[in-house]
Amino acid sequence: MSDIEARLRAIEDRAAIEDVLLAYYAAVDSMCDLDGLVDCFTSDAVLDVGDLGLSRLVGHDAIRAFFAGVFRDTAHHAHHISNVRISRLECDEATAHGYVFAKAKGVGGLELFVHCKYDIELVRTAAGWKMCLFDEDAQIPIGDEVSALHAGH
Amino acid sequence: MSDIEARLRAIEDRAAIEDVLLAYYAAVDSMCDLDGLVDCFTSDAVLDVGDLGLSRLVGHDAIRAFFAGVFRDTAHHAHHISNVRISRLECDEATAHGYVFAKAKGVGGLELFVHCKYDIELVRTAAGWKMCLFDEDAQIPIGDEVSALHAGH
Amino acid sequence: MSDIEARLRAIEDRAAIEDVLLAYYAAVDSMCDLDGLVDCFTSDAVLDVGDLGLSRLVGHDAIRAFFAGVFRDTAHHAHHISNVRISRLECDEATAHGYVFAKAKGVGGLELFVHCKYDIELVRTAAGWKMCLFDEDAQIPIGDEVSALHAGH
């Protein structure tokens, strides 16, 4: 691979990795696009939201079932992402980090405003970059509001 | 156009489109730069903030008059943009999406904190990328605070 | 320098400048990484937070001492950056701008939610881009909460 090719590819990979994250949150905020949502993950991906009082989800079916519940229990929500930073970019693997703050309202009326950070592992697949690990933690202590909102899951 | 040229141009276009959005909000938050603000739009652009209880503005004069009113009625405001995503990039046209949350205080003391999303259509002109459609919608229901703040317009 | 080289370098510089800002705030939010924090600045850098009721800090030692105090007095905080815009990119110098909103809680229980903007001057050094001026101003008036939180400094 020429030097120009390698540099172009690094820039394109950076953009593609950001696009996976953007696609994931666009699907989350669509309140319906479960196919688009799981398509951001490898089939054996881990979505770990245990730190939020929720579960450690493994695989498309578990992720899909979790968000089906979120969509059912949420009146509206918005996830603003920021501080997206790629700390490792290998040929076919990458590590990224970012923040999200979300405003949400449950169908029962409970309102949330949460600040979280996440560490992500990604792999290059035949269908582009996918997340194989999404580990989300509270950045600001959130008490037990999240688990109250999703008490059914 | 060579492959390298096409790839470089796609990367530069992505950055240039983000820059138009950044320039627009820098002008909005300047509280004075109406020339810089309308320069982000084509002369026949549509700025549709009807979903916020405001108007559907067509053309530089209408956009300029609207923001002259906003600047007059606002004590201070800040627009934080995020989740900027380009879903279509053709040779001379593009579609982009993003979020903004804004904190604002009217000269009468009314305070607002709004979460909006927007869908944008852009075209490449001799003077660079410009927005020809900016369609802004409430992401979180905002009641009628915005129309109350800008009741005079 | 060929045209391709110049264009690639401009794109890489843009990304590298954003990475300095991301590294700075990652260090700030680490609540401990003083080495990583000062490494984002030239040795004679100015960090001017005078507009927030704080000090004008000059050089690594002053910046380090300031943040050692912040880390000691803060229970938790998170800095969400947005609207990062590069307005000047020369061969070895650049000017950038951006917003940050931060949620913080002091060890004494005082809670803050601040909206700031910053103007940054950067230079290219043998060790990459570094900030030589970071001038932070309140975007939304913040009263004297910040100085109250950091009253000891």
Structure description:
The structure is a homotrimer of 153-residue chains. The first copy, chain A, has helices at residues 3-30, 34-38, 60-73, 145-149; strands at 41-48, 56-58, 74-89, 93-106, 111-125, 128-138. By secondary structure, chain A is an alpha+beta fold. The first copy, chain A, has one domain (3-149): Roll (Nuclear Transport Factor 2, Chain: A), CATH 3.10.450.50. Chain A has a six-stranded mixed β-sheet with strand order 2-1-6-5-4-3. Chains in contact: A-B, A-C, B-C. The interface between A and B is medium-sized, with 19 and 18 residues.
Blueprint (SSEs and pairs):
Three copies of one chain form a homotrimer.
Chain A: H1 3-30, H2 34-38, E1 41-48, E2 56-58, H3 60-73, E3 74-89, E4 93-106, E5 111-125, E6 128-138, H4 145-149
Bulk shape of chain A:
elongated
Distance, first to last CA of chain A? 48 Å
Q: Would you tell me the overall average pLDDT of chain A? A: 91
Largest interface: A-B, 19 and 18 residues
Strand content of chain A: 35-45%
Number of helices in the DSSP assignment of chain A: 4
> Based on the structure given, which CATH architecture of chain A is correct?
Roll
Instruction: Estimate nothing, just give the exact number of structural domains of chain A.
Output: 1
**Structural class computed from helices and strand pairing of chain A:** alpha+beta
The whole-angstrom Rg of chain A is 16 Å
Q: Taking strands numbered 1, 2, ... along the chain, how are they ordered across the largest sheet of chain A?
A: 2-1-6-5-4-3
The biggest beta sheet of chain A reads:
6 strands, mixed
CATH class of chain A: Alpha Beta
Helix content range of the residues of chain A, please? 25-40%
Quote the CATH topology of chain A. Answer: Nuclear Transport Factor 2, Chain: A
Query: Which residue ranges of chain A are poorly predicted, with pLDDT under 50 across at least 5 consecutive positions?
Result: none
Write the element-wise H/E pattern of chain A from the N-terminal end onward.
Answer: HHEEHEEEEH
DSSP summary, beta strand count of chain A = 6
